[in-house]
Structures are given as C-alpha cells and as structure tokens.
Amino acid sequence: MSNLNWCFAGCSWHHPLFKSANLVLERVVSAKQWEFWIDLGGPFTDIVARRLDRTVVTQKLPSENPEH
C-alpha cells in the first residue's frame, strides 16, 4: 500500500467517511462543484463524490487497468 495522505485545493481536513492513512483527498471549494474523495490504496481505487444536493455517489475501480 502506498503511504499517501495528500490534499488538493489547500484543504486541511478529512471527511469522516474516510479514516485511511492512504487517502488522497480532493475537495472542490466552489459551492457550484461536486466534492470528491479518492482512496488509492491497494488493488482497488475507491471514489466518493458528493453532489450539489448533498447526496453521495460511490465507485470502486481496479487500481490497475488489465488492458495495459
């Protein structure tokens, strides 16, 4: 597992959905944008997005593309 704990857009907090030390966190600051949290640890990449209406969408993808 990687040892990533990185934040984009100058944010300095962690969303309570994630407790992983391997978290790559991206928070879009504008209220007109979605918010994204991406966990790049292990065989899968987990993506969580929060829509404008505050509902949450999740996706789990293989960390490596088997076609390459």
From TrEMBL:
Superkingdom of origin organism: Bacteria
The protein's name in its UniProt record: Uncharacterized protein
Organism: Octadecabacter antarcticus 307
